[in-house]
Amino acid sequence: MALLQITEPGESTAPHQHRLAIGIDLGTTNSLVASVRSGVAETFPDVEGNHLLPSVVRYVSKDEIVVGSEASAAAVIDPLNTIVSVKRMMGRGLGDMKSLGSKLPYHFSDGSSSMPLIKTNSGDFSPVEISSEILKTLRLRAEETLGGELTGAVITVPAYFDEAQRQATKDAAQLAGLNVFRLLNEPTAAAVAYGLDSGSEGTVIIFDLGGGTFDVSVLRLNKGIFEVLATAGDSALGGDDMDHAIAQWIMTKANISDDVNHALMRQLMQHARQAKETLTEQSSVTIQLNIDSETSWRGSLSREKMNEIILPLVKQTLRPCRQALRDAGVSKEEIEKVVMVGGSTRVPLVRELVGEFFNCDPLVDIDPDKVVAIGAAIQADVLAGNKPDDEMLLLDVIPLSLGIETMGGLVEKIIPRNTTIPISRAQEFTTFKDGQTAMAVHVVQGEREVVDDCRSLSRFELRGIPPMVAGSARIQVTFQVDADGLLNVTALEKNSGVVSHVEVKPSYGLSEGEIEQMLRSSFDHAESDVKLRKLREQQVEADREILALESALADDAGVLLNQEELSNIMASLETLKSVRDGDDADLIKQRIKDVEDVCSFYVERRMNRNIEKAMAGHSVEEFND
Amino acid sequence: MTTVQTHFSLFSLPVVFDIDLVELTNRYRDLQKAVHPDKFANSSEQERLKAIQRASQVNDGYAVLKSPLSRAQYLLELNGVKSDDNATISDPFFLMQQMEMRESLEEASLKEDALAAVEDSLDEIDNVYRALLNEIKRMFAEANPDYHAINNNVLKLHFFNRLKNEAETLLANIENK
Lengths: 625, 177
Known about the structure:
The complex is a heterodimer of chains A (625) and B (177).
Chain A lengths: L1 H5 L14 E6 L3 E8 L2 E4 L9 E2 L1 E6 L2 E4 L1 H5 L8 E3 L9 H7 L7 E2 L7 E4 L2 E3 L1 H20 L5 E6 L5 H13 L4 E6 H8 L8 E8 L4 E9 L2 E10 L4 H15 L8 H17 L5 E7 L5 E7 H13 L2 H11 L6 E7 L6 H11 L12 H13 L9 E3 L6 E5 L3 E6 L7 E7 L9 E7 L9 E9 L11 E7 L5 E7 L4 E9 L5 H11 L4 H34 L2 H18 L4 H30 L5 H5 L1
Parallel strand pairs in A: 1-11, 11-12, 13-18, 15-19
Antiparallel strand pairs in A: 1-2, 2-3, 2-4, 5-6, 5-7, 8-9, 9-10, 13-14, 14-15, 16-17, 20-21, 20-23, 22-25, 23-24, 24-27, 25-26, 26-27
Chain B lengths: L6 H4 L10 H15 L9 H22 L1 H11 L13 H19 L3 H28 L5 H30 L1
C-alpha cells in the first residue's frame, strides 16, 4: 500500500504510545496539578505530601524565588516581596489595581508595558510572570512524578474570565514552558470530573464556593456534549467571610475590642477557621485563645450557633443561583444534579441550603478542592489523543459581549454574550479621508452601551489599506474568537483583495514582543542560548507538522489526492525533513511555511470530508420524506 | 462541496422555514464532533486554524437556524429581501395593538399582585407571538411566497419578541424582591 512508503521506519512515534498530559487548576488561593495514569485521574502531591500548592510567590533575592507554603509563611514578614492572590490581577490594568485598594500592599511601577508591574527587591514583575512561577512549579512536580516530557496541558479559568484574563493565563502558561491544549472553564471541568458526560442527559448546577469567591453555573449535558448555559457569582464571597463572622463572634464573647492588633487578629481568624472545620464533623468545639501574656479566653461553639452566625452569608449564594437559572432560561425543577466545588462547600449548612434550594442531594464524592484539577486532567488526556474513541466534546460560551467603539464613545456589539465559541463575525468599515491607509479599531468587552463602562481589550491598527477616495474602501474586519475565548482580528480590503496588516495593542496585556523578551530573560542571557532555544522551538514545530501530515496522509491520501498532488506534498515534506536537523531556525520556519502552502488545498479537503462524513446518510431528500 | 454554502446546505437541510429542530440539533452535534478544534489538538497549526473557522461556521449556522426569528430573516435574505430590525411599521392596527399591550404590561407591574398580573400579561403576549409565528410559517409554505408581506410580519414578530423579553425581565425583578 502507498502509505507504507510514507513513514520511514523509526521516525514516527508509535500511534498508541501514551502521551503525558496534565490538568492544572490555577486558583486564587491554591493551585493543583493532576494527570490520568493507568486510566485514573489523580492530583499530585509535593515531596511533603501536600496536594494543594498555595498560590503565593516570594521573590527572596535575584536568584531565589520560592512558591507555595514556604512563600505563604513569609507573607507576614515580607509582604512587599511576597505576592498572594495574583489571579485577581491577571489581565487587569493599573487603574484596577488601585480600585482593589487597600487589599493590595504592593508597590506598582508604571513601566512601559500596559500591564501593571509589581516592584520587588528582585525587580519588577507582571502578574503573568508571577503566575508563570506557580505554573512552573506545578509543571516540574508533574514531570518528576510522571518521569517524562509533557505533551500539553489543560488549564482552568473561571467561566466569567474576560478575554484579557484568559490571554494573560495562556501567556503565563507559555512562559512556564507549557503547551496549552485548552483553557477550560472551571465548572465544565468539575462536570467532567464527575463523568456527567457518560450516558447522562440533563441540566446540572456547578456550585463553587471557595475561600474568597463564589461562582455558580448552569450546564446542559447531552450525549457527551457539555454546554455552559449561564454563569453568575459574587467575586467577594467565600469561606474567609465565614471565618471573619466567627472571629467577630469570638471577639464579642471574649470582650476583645475592634481595634485589635494584627497578630491577635490572625490568631482569631485561625481559631475561627479551625472551629469551622471541626464543626463539619462534630457538633461542638472548644476554643482556647491567648489574648495576651496574662489573659486568655475559653469558650465553646456549637454547630447550631455557628450555623446561625454564617446563615446570612450562605443565603447570599442563592441570589446568583436564581440569576444563573434565569439567564439560562431553566427552572429549578429541571435541575437534575448539583456538583459541589471549593473547600467551603464542606460546611454542612452550605450543603443543606443548596440541597433544599434545588431539591436534590448535592454531589460531594470527589474532594471539592481537587475536582476541577481532576476534570482538567481527564480533558487533557482526551486532547492528547490517549482516548481516540472518546465522544466527549466541551462547548463553551463567551461570557461577556464583544463590541467595538463607534462614534461618540458608544459600543456596537459584535458578538453577544453566551454565544457558543468558536465563533467569527465580519464587519465592514470604510475610510473617511482621501488616501487614508490606516485605521484603528478599539475592541471592548462588556454589556454596557458606553465604552467607558466596558473593559477595554485591545486596539487593532489596520495598516496597508490601498489609498482610495474617502468612503470607497471596503475593509472587512473579521473578529475570530477561538475555543479558548481568545480573540484574533484579520482585515481585508474587498475591492483590491489586499490583506491589511493588523497590529494588536492589548490594553492590559503583553504584546508578542514583550512575551518574547520575557521568554528570553527567563532563560540564560547568553546569545547562544537564545538561538538554541529558537532552534529547538522550530524543531518541535517541524516535528509536529511532519507527524500531523504523515498521519493525515496515512488516513486519507488515497481518497483525497491524485498522484501528482501526493508527490508535490511528499516533496515539500522531504525538504522540511532534510532541514529539520540543521541549525538554521529561520530556514526550518520557512520550510514549515512551504509545506503549509502546498498543503492548503489538502487541509481544506480534509475538513470538507469530515463534514461530509458527519452528514453522511442525511440528505436533503431524506429529510423531505 | 461548493464554496458558496448556505447554513441550510451545511446542515444538509432543505431550504424551508419549517425545519425539524430535533434533527437540527442532532446534526449540529455531529458536525461539531467532526470539526471542533479540540478534535485537532495534535494536528498542524494550519489544520487547527481551519477547524476553528469551520466550527465557527457550524455554531453560526446553528444559532441562525435554531431561532425562528433569525431563520425567517435569513430565508428572506436568501430570497433577496433584506430584513432590517429597526425598520418602522406603519400598519395602524398593529401600532394600536402594540401600544395597548405595552400599557397593559406596565399596569400589571404596578398591581398589588404584580407577579400574577405580569404572568398573565406575558401569556397574552406569548399567544399573539405564537399566532404570528404560525402565520409566517403558513406564508413561507405557499407555492409563491410573498416575501415582502412575510417581512412585514417578521418585523412585527421582532417587536413581540422584544416585548416578551421585557416582560420576562420584569417578572425576574419582581421575583427577586
